[in-house]
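Feature request, filed as a ticket because there's no other form

It would be nice if the structure record came with a short human-readable summary line next to the tokens. Right now we just get the raw output. Example of a typical job, pasted below so the devs can see what we mean:
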Amino acid sequence: LYKLSPHSKILIKHILIKHQSIGGRGTPRGLPLSSCISELMMKDFDSQIRNNNNTFFYSRYVDDIIIITSGNEDKSDFLKYIKTILPYGLDLNYNKLEISNKINSIGKVSDVSPKKIVIKFEYLGYKIVVSDPYKKSKSNKRVVDVDLATKKTKKYKLRIARAFYDFVKTKDINLLKDRIKYLANNFKVYNIHIEKTKLAGIYHNYPEIQLEAKNLKELDHYLRGLVLSRNGRLGRFLAPSLTGKLKRELLQNSFVKGHSEKRFIHFSAIRIAEIKKCWEY
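Raw output as currently delivered:
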């Protein structure tokens, strides 16, 4: 904060006081300045973690943090150390906290054996799985598989289901088709905070997902099951309303292909608002 002018400091202070007076906590959500304030608050924390003798790798995206250490530190003491250097008013989210034991030296497993997973975790919407290589592999490096996070996969499934439930009520065929296209493909969206158009969607939100991602295949399987099944509560509701033509049109959508082929569609801002309406509750 020492680099800011006195006038800037006064303005920021007034904004935070006003936010607090109306019951807000932390920095105001949706305000472009909030991210700058957060980064300034975390600057010393970032520096201390990076310079710690046990830190091998450190990365932070807003409030999502990943730290790879030597494994020689005491886990309890290191966790206490992190808590003590957090800026005043901040604490760790123990619901998202994951601590791995020290990973052993790299080894190789028989080619006929299942992959030997040494660690797996989720970070920024990705599921990252690290495994020892097979014996016939020429590489002596571990294998890293990057998939869509399980939590994100469940969120996509919930949105698919809500799209179909809303269709049962409204019978709006075009809205159903657009909702599935929206989920399985890519599109442009206007960001009011930076006043620019950005790309979004299954590929542009998660570009690092690998081609053989299991969770993307699982989403295709889930969509196909809803469209073709006559069983279950939703299946019984849908069966009378889904014509053969509509089924074929819905099944032309694929999360795997939407990602691998970077399939792109266009929606107006008004249409996107209509599409997202059934997911807002």
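Something like this underneath would help us a lot:
Residues 186 and 204 are 7 Å apart (CA to CA).
The radius of gyration is 24 Å.
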